[in-house]
């Protein structure tokens, strides 16, 4: 089970960092999509930096819980915007990182509770 958790954390961290890099680098499709919801360039870059930081925080066990919370928030915002745009199939697919991140939050909180007792 420990290997599965490590793989899930690595996958979510990579997805979060990759999504953040796309926003920071202002990939045209990403910018066009977010600007259709009135995101400014500075908001898009800030959102991207938040995702990169969250992905980095996921990599260390002491900061994993915080990183997972931030990642879950970012993935939820993205999925919500995808659903609002009318792309239901991709919106459903976008729920997968949220589910994986909730699993990480659960695992990290369980470990933190053991450490605190």
What does this structure look like?
There is one protein chain. Helix 4 runs antiparallel to helix 6 (95-116). The chain has one domain (2-116). The protein has 117 residues and is mostly helical. 84% of the residues lie in helices and 0% in strands.
Give the mean pLDDT: 93
Would you list the SSEs in sequence order as H and E? HHHHHH
The end-to-end distance, rounded to whole angstroms, is 23 Å
The dominant shape is: globular
Low-confidence stretches: none
CA-based gyration radius: 15 Å
**Count of alpha/pi helices:** 6
Count of discrete domains: 1
Q: Can you give the helix content as a percent range? A: over 70%
Beta percentage is under 5%
What is the number of E strands?
A: 0
What characterizes the major β-sheet? none
Structural class: mainly alpha
Task: Offer a few descriptive terms.
single chain, about 120 residues, mainly alpha, 6 helices
């Amino acid at each position: 089970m420990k290997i599965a958790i490590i793989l899930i954390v690595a996958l979510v961290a990579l997805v979060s960092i990759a999504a953040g890099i796309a926003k920071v680098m202002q990939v045209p499709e990403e910018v066009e999509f977010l600007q259709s919801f009135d995101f400014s360039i500075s908001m898009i870059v800030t959102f991207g930096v938040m995702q990169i930081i969250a992905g980095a925080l996921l990599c260390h066990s002491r900061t994993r819980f915080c990183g997972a919370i931030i990642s879950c928030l970012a993935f939820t915002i993205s999925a919500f915007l995808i659903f609002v745009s009318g792309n239901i199939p991709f919106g459903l697919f976008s729920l997968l990182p949220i589910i994986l991140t909730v699993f990480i939050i659960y695992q990290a909180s369980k470990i933190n509770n053991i450490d605190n007792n």
